[in-house]
Amino acid sequence: MTHEREATRAWALHPDIKSERDRRGAEFALAEAVSLAAALPDLDVVGAESVRVSRPHPGMLFGSGKIDELKAKFQDAEVDLVLVDGPVTPVQQRNLEKEWKVKLLDRTGLILEIFSDRARTREGVLQVEMAALSYQRTRLVRAWTHLERQRGGLGFVGGPGETQIEADRRAIDEQLVRLRRQLDKVVKTRELHRAARAKVPFPIVALVGYTNAGKSTLFNRLTGADVMAKDMLFATLDPTMRRVQLPDGGPEVILSDTVGFISDLPTELVASFRATLEEVLAANLILHVRDISHPETENQARDVAEIMDSLGVSEDVPVLELWNKIDNFGDEVKAAHIGRAAREDDVFAISAVTGEGLPDLMERITRALASERHLSQFHLDFSEGKKRAWLFAEEVVESEEQDETGFNLTVRWTDRQEKRFREM
């Protein structure tokens, strides 16, 4: 007889800190926090509210009156877990857990939990474990500071508190070293796969966008793949890649679906998931998928641009902006968005669900990748038969003339093909 695990009763709080200049709209931030929580199985969000905070209390985050008021609500709702949509220091977490007698997770902790639950590939799992340990390590050091006061003297001689911190820190560091070694092996394997792909240099088209923008739905429609596509934040964590033949004689491309971006992504994850997003760095063309029906779509687009910038995506890589989910609008508003997109350069109003707008997009992708090819002229000696055979196998030779020393060739190829040829 199997017993279903009882769902954890959770309450989401968004601290609306008035002293923060660039704070997001409280209503939308809270809605996103609830969506984040919904991405975790076995979690039942029984309440959610935004709490105005003039200035965060260093020890408790909120004022004493608000803490008492929330405590009563949590008791009435039999809450097991409080999710705070924002950073919470280890001291604040410890004090609030003690006061409310519940477990508390801040935004970083929650996102780590989701990533841990969603990661599928070996690399994804290792990245999450390393990010979680890095996060725990920073909290561990500060969370144990109350023990350091047990020491006497000037603190040069370690007491029980310091011994405990050092032992825990060393255990985490040793585990991080082990994980990093395993990750290096996995990354090398991926590099071998990438090198194998480079021999057949299909252009890479990468889908990027804010989480839940509809990337996976679009990926499935374009490739016929069955990638998990749910109305859920972080539905995709590991890059999924498929070969796609573009219509009307267009080139074959590799389409890559990536993890959704999100505002205030924990620094531990930005660093750890750089490798997960490496396909974006290698892309010949980027498709930025936006949920144009979302009230915060402009802010989300800015967040995506900032993360791409921090990843070091080259400005030379062309970006097409896709205004997805136009099927969420009535006819009049939909027509207005289609008209607006048509007046913009490289913007397409589409619906990944209905397929509307996709033929024009595919034609533009074909043109973007065709314009990537350039003409080169050079001479090959008779002794360079291997190079000549490779050029013909790649179908890049436009014309060839033979003279007494070898071959004069005109080729049309991509930068990637030229680079491979020069390295032969």
TrEMBL record:
Stated family: Belongs to the TRAFAC class OBG-HflX-like GTPase superfamily. HflX GTPase family.
Q: Where in the cell is it found?
A: Cytoplasm
Q: Which organism is it from?
A: Thalassovita litoralis
NCBIfam families the record matches = GTP_HflX (TIGR03156)
Q: Is GTP-binding given among the entry's keywords?
A: yes
Enumerate the UniProt keywords alphabetically: Cytoplasm, GTP-binding, Magnesium, Metal-binding, Nucleotide-binding
Per its UniProt record, the required cofactor names are: Mg(2+)
- A GO CC annotation given for this chain: cytoplasm
Sequence ranges assigned to domain Hflx-type G in this UniProt record = 203-373
Does the entry feature the keyword Metal-binding, yes or no? yes
Name the positions where Mg(2+) binds: 216, 236
Role this protein plays: GTPase that associates with the 50S ribosomal subunit and may have a role during protein synthesis or ribosome biogenesis.
Q: How does it assemble?
A: Monomer. Associates with the 50S ribosomal subunit.
What gene is behind this protein? hflX
What the entry lists under CDD domains is as follows:
HflX
Binding annotation for GTP: 209-216, 234-238, 257-260, 324-327
Taxonomic lineage from the root: Bacteria, Pseudomonadati, Pseudomonadota, Alphaproteobacteria, Rhodobacterales
Can you say what this protein is called? GTPase HflX
What Gene Ontology terms describe what this protein does at the molecular function level? GTP binding; GTPase activity; metal ion binding; ribosome binding
